[in-house]
């Protein structure tokens, strides 16, 4: 027979009621529940509302029933209770409860003493834990997947403008394709991001990978078809059906590549490295950046060498074979990443309650997605303009107006039409990417010696100075000679050191100045603004599409870089109170 005791204390009596409950187990359960803190257990501090005080007690594995035996006095005082309840009513002595309360206090003091006596990790041990990834095997599989995917993507980024530039001596087709690709990123980026939030990570990633490769293969087919028919004029190229398909495929390919990059850099690497392991996360970010730059070097160099020795159609078929080969490798490595990380990528992207409420409240149809995307864009613009480090971000955006004096589609098309060998053009792009790798090391030393803010100014001033000399060399009308042309390209290569240094330092400035709760929103908006800047310059290149207008485009690019340097230096020399509070560790503004 089991016995349950439910005790109710009254201000004027020490009576407690006992109910006998029949069950198969034989134990007495008494659970203490106090409606307030420990001070109610102390008799020196009587509770203000004693009539609301309730007590349930529990004793386990005991056959002692003598403490609940009652005397005649108790039975006389509880006659009314016996008449109302079919169970016996007993009285427990309050001094025993007070003794137990004091024992509870003593036990709590012992626990507090025990907790304060626990050993604390040293700073070296904490740094060792912070530098260890949460899922190292999964992180290495992610590196391999990014290496295979980025190699094909960077090779194609160099291949398509070079192959199109061989069709006709004009910048127009490359500028048109680049313009519509940027427009697709600006308009479709929020839509693709919203769709990815509604699907599991691994299937969504593999689906986008297949879409990207399909768009690349379609583009290869269209360019091969164009080389087979050899259009005679640019006006005939722009109205051809194959060119419309090529523009659409290029926009889809860029949009898919952007979504894949955001998924890896903003979500996957955080889960695999660990959100509470900052050193491991920083190292993982650096490795991903170097993988991307190394793939840019290898892709541009390989295709440039192939293009210098073989026909463009043969090189495009070779690129298509590499795309087909890399697709299953990327899919398998993506699956392996999730398996080696104990399925961490299968975690829900939001709590179950919020996911249910969001799915019940709105379905991801086209109207809701478009409406949410428009609201997200509006909110992002508002938050972007109100950020405390806006001048540093605007300087970063101004650098994206430089679409000519930098490795890219327009520069590749210009050098191809200028008569340079594809191997030299590939080497030029590879050296620019190598400067990006070097900048990841140089920027750290610059921050250590100059501080974050001065390091950013040094990078911008270096880039502006070198590009000024490069434009002067171009306007000297001596690029037809070999040595001035090599000097011109060398200045652009060296300017990438300043550009990428500010890219690294600027990211740290934004991480310091932007609240963590708004980092993703402001960062995504900054990418959209940068894409808008590129699209504006590509629109200008569409109008001034002849190679004779390259000097005009180069001057616009130079003015944007000089403007970025002036804007940043003015912000640095006239610090606000918010800037002083955010960068109080910087000696120049303290």
Please report the distance between the alpha carbons of the first and last residues.
Answer: 77 Å
> Helical residue percent?
over 70%
- How many strands, what sense, and barrel or not for the largest sheet? 5 strands, mixed
Number of strands: 5
Q: Strand-and-helix sequence, N→C?
A: EEEEHHEHHHHHHHHHHHHHHHHHHH
Give the overall shape: globular
What structural category do the secondary elements indicate? mainly alpha
> What is the average per-residue confidence, as pLDDT, rounded to a whole number?
75
Pfam families: FPN1 (PF06963)
Main location: membrane
Keywords: Ion transport, Membrane, Transmembrane, Transmembrane helix, Transport
Subcellular location: Membrane
